[in-house]
Write a structure and sequence with these properties.
The complex is a heterodimer of chains A (322) and B (635). With 322 residues, chain A is an alpha/beta fold. Chain A has a single domain, classed as TIM Barrel (Alpha-Beta Barrel). Chain A is 38% helix and 13% strand. Chain A has eleven helices and ten strands. Chain A has an eight-stranded parallel sheet. Chain A has a two-stranded antiparallel sheet with strand order 1-2. In chain A, β5, α4 and β6 form a beta-alpha-beta unit. In chain B, α11 crosses α17. A six-stranded mixed sheet of chain B has the order 13-12-11-14-16-15, sandwiched between helices. A six-stranded mixed sheet of chain B has the order 27-26-17-18-19-28, sandwiched between helices. A five-stranded mixed sheet of chain B has the order 2-1-7-3-5. Chain B is globular and about 100 Å long. Chain B has 20 helices and 28 strands. Classes of the chains: A alpha/beta (322), B alpha/beta (635). At the A-B interface, α6 of A face α20 of B. Chain B: GO terms for molecular function: iron-sulfur cluster binding. Chain B: It comes from Moorella mulderi DSM 14980. Chain B: This is Na(+)-translocating NADH-quinone reductase subunit F. Chain A: It comes from Moorella mulderi DSM 14980.
């Protein structure tokens, strides 16, 4: 007897968000990248269109406090964000650059706003791929920095972050005025995730300009919570919940390299194997698990982890329709 | 022990207490009960007093710096060490205040409405008996003579108690053997023997609420309501909600007895004044029906309420034995029958059963949702075939409690708010038309809706930076001034704070989550509900569209909403006047399925998604969100 395979047809699709703008579109990017648009659960090609997840490699404006294993591949460029970005694109095939302006942190380097803006411009000039720019996490400073970045990069159609429930207005306004996209970040909470999207949308920023950062946990640090939240977001989107229909971005590199298992030296834990392999695998496995949960943009750090995940994406994008 | 004389000003009342007593306790003893939401824990800041003279020790407590500077302290934290004079500001007094007696609602008073198709068969009846005077040959005892006459007249076997017997010989003879016998319908107990023609019989219907107590006096012979009275529940000095009362009852030695006495004192005071006003003797009141929540019933009857509060929340009983007034301490005829409404569970009590009875929840085909929003939010869903009930800890925010400028719906309470979105100017509607003193539930709901509409708060309830002097920052966050000191009745600004708004959103979220939980448990959609009955004083001033706009009540057509007023009291009246109704109430209590919301995740999930204005699932509130350009904005 032939097996009748049931297919779920979705009522709606994930919102498409376009990142970057070419010259004709008012920017300077060599191409744009579209994320989202899925009409099925992750990699269910047999049920509908599946969008290709993309990888944004992380670049920082100051030399980051990363373990040596992670800094090694970038040693020659780590002082110059532009060249660092270039290397990520040219040598490691990054789809996008994720520029984190940690140098702005008043508790840290406390770089002035114009220096932050200059870094953004430097990176924009160095690469042709679209850019994701986020602040240092200090609410007041980010307010100033991101507003200046938004203005200086007007037309580039950046993805700017992070908007949070208690602090979304100024960034939303900046994105509207200067035509950028926004990262709406919620603390692993489906309700706050949706509420934040409503709040941002009610300020009149279109749903196709919002990307969800649901907050994730790295492998071994609550990744299953992230998985279930992301699953609910995707199911909501496919069932027609407009306020959950945005593409999802995941801070993979940050979470994976926070894990003790990723960075603890082999001298302390001889049984765990070489830390260089461990960290890469920790990041790659975190990323691949989240791909299955419905991630659209992976924010990653180590080139080898990126290579492994790209390979995995290639395999997953082979059409399994029948 | 050192005796101290405490003089309270401006009342100029003195009382003697031992050193070490708190001012709060002394004031209670002096008959000047103070507000004490936290039950004397020093956290609510309501029992503010000023020591004029004498030695005290102040423990601390939560009090704004401004008041501290002005020399105020908290009565519960102020310990008397010697002879003192204490000034009590008027706002600290637990004043006897207006309690909802009149309903604006659709289900109006009046006997016909109350009884409907139930027969008038009151808890007691008066039977006139003509006894033959005893002779040397007709020499049966007084009791046998009386019972024989009763048997002959009514065909029932009367029950005689010792107390009645003790006076019977004189009663019969003074009446010249022509007597009126008051008889309890439930068990044919003889309650009273009086000369023929003088046997009046009255009954009390009592709504024993956590916050207020209302007593209705009825003439049991014709079912007419003679009068009503209400007052604050005197237990309020031991805390505002049932939880703090239970804690007081179970952790303080003698606490349960104090609470029992406080409840009794409240009821007896109201009923005594009612009786005096209408020239009725206590002895003539021969029946009482009491409807209260489960905790109140326990406390009134002196039953240990400890396990109501502790998981898995088990009450001592849901049905109470037939009682007499004497054994529980009601100041009416000691033999009077007392019926206490059955409960469903620890947090769905006799008040809800009474409400279900009065509103005929179990009599119709139509699917009805009964909601009582008070100190707790209780609700019942169902029709004549099934009933399911739950209680959600909504908190007393809609009763004005726990809100900076909150108050109950009484004169001076703001019941309506208008805010100009351009200028942020405010117009207030005040009950009674005078100057505002605070906000009651309906005013709070209106305020929330209007703040949101004017863009002063966003959908999460956070204040937005709007340029108006009314919005200001304090140490505790933002607050919005609704009335300036010069406009209010007490010369202080009336404000709503960021914390108040969060509190209200939690309360409304809990109520709505309760409704959703009930519906989901029986797999029904909101649209299936034919009728929503709002019970409690809260409903009388409530503006449904505002309550829908903030997501407190479901977005259903206004014509499906019915206000029923104090259904607990009306249910008690009905049960007092009609024995079949009382039997139905017993049946109702057994029939309702109780949904324990703390079991499982259902309620919590619903609650969290309801913490938004109106709701995270905007599609549940089409009338609030249509017209908003959500769809259009996507383009």
């Amino acid at each position: 007897m032939p097996v009748q395979v049931l297919r779920d047809r979705s009522r709606a699709t994930v919102q498409k968000v376009v990142l970057g703008a070419t010259k004709e579109q008012g920017g300077t990017r060599s191409h744009t990248i579209v994320v989202g648009g899925d009409a099925a659960l992750p990699f269910h090609h047999f049920e509908g269109e599946v969008s290709r997840p993309v990888i944004a490699m992380e670049v920082q404006d100051i030399v980051p406090d990363w373990p040596d294993v992670l800094k090694d591949p970038f040693n020659d460029v780590i002082n110059e964000p532009g060249r660092w970005a270039q290397k990520c694109v040219a040598a490691y095939g990054a789809d996008l650059i994720y520029l984190k302006l940690d140098g702005a942190d008043p508790e840290g380097a406390n770089r002035p706003v114009d220096q932050c803006v200059a870094t953004v411009k430097e990176v924009l000039q160095a690469v042709g791929v679209p850019l994701i720019v986020v602040g240092c996490g200090d609410v007041e400073k980010d307010h100033d920095v991101l507003e200046a970045v938004a203005e200086a990069a007007a037309g580039e159609n950046l993805l700017l972050g992070n908007a949070e429930q208690d602090n979304y207005k100024s960034l939303t306004a900046a994105c509207m005025v200067h035509k950028h996209n926004i990262i709406a970040r919620s603390p692993l909470d489906i309700n706050i995730c949706k509420q934040l999207n409503i709040l941002i949308n009610e300020m009149n920023l279109g749903l196709d300009h919002i990307v969800i950062d649901p907050s994730i946990g790295g492998l071994g640090y609550g990744i299953e919570y992230a998985y279930s939240i992301m699953e609910r977001i995707r199911l909501g989107a496919l069932q027609g919940d407009k306020m959950l229909s945005m593409p999802v971005i995941c801070t993979v590199g940050y979470e994976a390299w926070r894990a003790k298992e990723a960075v603890a030296p082999v001298s302390e834990y001889p049984g765990w194997g070489k830390e260089v392999e461990r960290g890469i695998l920790w990041e790659a496995v975190t990323a691949t698990a989240l791909l299955q949960a419905g991630a659209h943009i992976l924010l990653m750090r180590h080139p080898e982890a990126v290579a492994k995940v790209k390979e995995n994406i290639d395999q997953l994008m082979v059409n399994n329709a029948y | 022990m050192n005796q101290c004389t405490v003089t309270f000003l401006p009342a100029n009342t003195t009382v003697k207490v031992t050193a070490g007593t708190t001012v709060l306790e002394a004031a209670q003893k002096a008959g000047l009960p103070l507000k004490s939401t936290c039950g004397g824990a020093g956290t609510c800041g309501r029992c503010i007093i000023k020591v004029r003279r004498g030695e005290v020790q102040v423990k601390g407590g939560h009090l704004p710096a401004k008041l501290k500077e002005d020399g105020y302290t908290l009565a519960c934290q102020t310990i008397i060490q010697g002879d003192v004079a204490i000034e009590i500001p008027a706002e600290s007094l637990l004043s006897k205040h207006q309690v909802l007696l009149q309903d604006k609602g659709r289900l109006q008073d009046g006997l016909t409405d109350l009884l409907g198709s139930y027969p008038l068969e009151a808890a007691c009846e008066v039977v006139t008996l003509h006894l033959a005077e005893p002779t040397l040959t007709e020499n049966t005892s007084d009791t046998s003579r009386l019972l024989a006459a009763l048997r002959k007249e009514k065909g029932v076997e009367g029950q005689v108690s010792l107390a009645l017997l003790q006076d019977l010989p004189e009663s019969l003879r003074q009446a010249g053997w022509q007597v009126d016998v008051t008889l309890a319908r439930a068990d044919n107990r003889l309650l009273r023997v009086t000369p023929a023609g003088s046997g009046r019989s009255f009954g009390l219907a009592i709504d024993l609420g956590t916050t207020t107590v209302v007593v209705s006096l009825l003439d049991l012979r014709n079912g007419r309501r003679i009068g009503q009275g209400g007052s604050y529940n005197r237990q309020a000095v031991y805390g505002d909600d049932v939880i703090s009362r239970i804690i007081h009852a179970t952790s303080n030695h003698g606490g349960l007895e104090e609470l029992r006495q406080a409840a009794l004192a409240t009821i007896n005071e109201i009923s005594n004044s009612l009786l005096a006003n209408h020239g009725i003797n206590q002895a003539e009141v021969t029946a009482a029906v009491i409807a209260g929540n489960t905790t109140m019933s326990h406390l009134l009857l002196g039953v240990n309420p400890k396990y109501i509060r502790l998981q898995p929340y088990i009450p001592a009983a849901t049905e109470w034995p037939a009682l007499t007034a004497g054994e529980i301490g009601l100041a009416i005829n000691p033999l009077a029958t007392v019926q206490v409404f059955p409960s469903v569970a620890s947090y769905v009590g006799g008040d809800i059963v009474a409400g279900a009875l009065f509103t005929r929840l179990a009599r119709g085909e139509e699917l009805t949702l009964f909601i009582d929003i008070g100190t707790n939010g209780e609700m019942v869903l169902g029709n004549k075939d099934w009933l399911i009930a739950c209680a959600c800890s909504a908190g007393p925010a809609f009763e004005g409690s726990g809100i900076t400028c909150g108050m109950r719906a009484m004169e001076g309470a703001v019941e309506g708010v208008t805010i100009d979105p351009e200028t942020c100017e405010v117009e207030l509607e005040v009950i009674g038309g005078g100057r505002p003193a605070g906000l009651c539930g309906s005013g709070l709901i209106d305020c929330l809706a209007k703040l949101r509409r004017a863009g002063i708060i966003d959908r999460t309830g956070n204040f937005q930076e709007v340029a108006t002097p009314r919005l200001r920052r304090t140490d505790e966050g933002y607050e919005f001034v609704l009335a300036w000191a010069a406009e209010s009745s007490h010369g202080k600004d009336i404000v709503i704070t960021a914390a108040d708004i969060k509190n209200l959103i939690r309360s409304k979220g809990a109520v709505f989550a309760g409704i959703q939980s009930l519906l989901k448990t029986v797999s029904l959609e909101l649209e299936a509900v034919d009728r929503i009955i709002i019970a409690g004083g809260f409903g009388n001033y409530l503006h449904v569209p505002n309550a829908v706009e903030i997501g407190l009540l479901p977005d259903l057509p206004a014509e499906k909403y019915v206000f029923a007023g104090n259904t607990s009291l009306k249910g008690a009246e009905l049960a007092l006047l009609s024995r079949p109704a009382w039997e139905e109430a017993l049946e109702l209590g057994r029939k309702m399925t109780y949904l324990e919301l703390s079991a499982g995740n259902l309620f919590m999930e619903e609650f969290v998604s309801a913490l938004f204005l109106p709701h995270t699932r905007l599609e549940l509130f089409p009338s609030v969100t249509t017209g908003t350009s959500l769809e259009r904005r996507e383009g």
